[in-house]
Design a protein that fits this description.
CATH topology: BirA Bifunctional Protein, domain 2
Structural class: alpha/beta
Radius of gyration: 19 Å
Largest sheet: 8 strands, mixed
Number of domains: 1
Helix content: 25-40%
Distance between the termini: 30 Å
Number of helices: 6
Length: about 300
């Protein structure tokens, strides 16, 4: 039996609203017994802190202190949300069992990565994470990028401590997406994080398109062009405009296909209902515009 999945596509919004609507998604997915996929952007450059990070740590980089700042419900490093496309997926608790018992074949994994995974013991949360990142990686490869999933069981000594770096995109986790450009310049271009609640699972992530003036060392896809443009499946040179949605159709399709691999879904496109927007407004005011949460990490609400 097909499960219902809903697609929301939102224009740029403030950080507190983006975080509040992500949280409201979880409740709505549980209420409607459906999966919700959302794509969105940011009205202003915004720094989002991981749940466990210290608010004071942002002062280490003076530029960050002038940015809007929110705290996510998910862990991990801080993210400079600017020239990117952001997605979120809410999966209700009732969807614990996967329709497909076997995970997809991760064609872009190296042999060590494949052999290190006990496929039969992956929870659906990890299956979702790995499936999305694998399929986005394969999509980038089809476009001509030298893309791969980062795989390391321990931190590697580099100029940046990958375990403790403040910014998420200076860190590396096992299935982060890394692209190597001309001159063997390598950059993490996509990462995701999850939060499980009593209602279900939230996963959200960012795909960097261009560097932000607030973190110019973090390159995006525009600065990491395909190494073999003549072999690319693109009809013309890659042009990504972070303020337009046209190119994002394929990215959205990849996300939908990833969900379908795990749960065969009947997809619907709709805008968030008025009751969802009202719930998000309440969450925004009580949590994401509240210094008790943003600065002091005081838990507010049940998620």
């Amino acid at each position: 039996m097909e499960k219902t999945a809903i697609l929301w596509i939102d224009g740029p919004s403030e950080g507190a609203w983006n975080m509040a609507l992500d949280q409201a998604m979880i409740q709505h997915a549980a209420d409607e017994n459906c999966i919700i996929l959302r794509l969105y952007q940011w009205a202003r450059p915004t720094l989002s802190l991981g749940y466990f990070q210290s608010f004071e740590d942002r002062s280490r980089t003076p530029a960050f202190e002038s940015m809007d700042c929110v705290r996510r419900v998910t862990g991990g490093g801080a993210i400079v949300h600017d020239q990117e496309i952001t997605y979120s997926i809410a999966v209700p608790k009732s969807f614990e069992e996967l329709i497909n018992d076997d995970l997809p074949t991760f064609d872009s994994w190296n042999e060590n990565a494949k052999s290190s995974v006990n496929r039969s013991h992956l929870r659906h949360s990890e299956s979702l994470y790995r499936t999305i990142h694998s399929r986005v990686t394969n999509w980038l490869i089809e476009l001509g990028f030298e893309a791969r999933l980062h795989k390391s069981n321990s931190c590697i000594d580099t100029s940046v401590d990958e375990c403790k770096a403040f910014l998420c995109f200076e860190r590396r986790s096992d299935v982060d997406i890394v692209v190597t450009g001309q001159g063997n310049q390598s950059q993490k271009v996509m990462g995701s994080a999850q939060r499980r609640t009593s209602k279900g699972l939230l996963q959200h992530g960012s795909l960097i398109l261009n560097p932000s003036p607030f973190a110019p060392h973090l390159l995006g896809l525009e600065q990491l062009p395909p190494n073999n443009p003549n072999e690319s499946k693109l009809d013309e040179p890659l042009k990504i405009n972070a303020k337009k949605w046209g190119w994002a159709i394929d990215f959205c399709r990849i996300l939908q296909d990833s969900v379908d691999v795990l749960w065969k879904c009947d997809w619907k496109y709709e805008d968030p209902a008025s009751n969802v927007l009202e719930r998000a407004r309440q969450i925004r005011e009580s949590r994401f515009r509240n210094d008790a949460w943003t600065v002091h990490r005081v838990r507010i609400g049940d998620n």
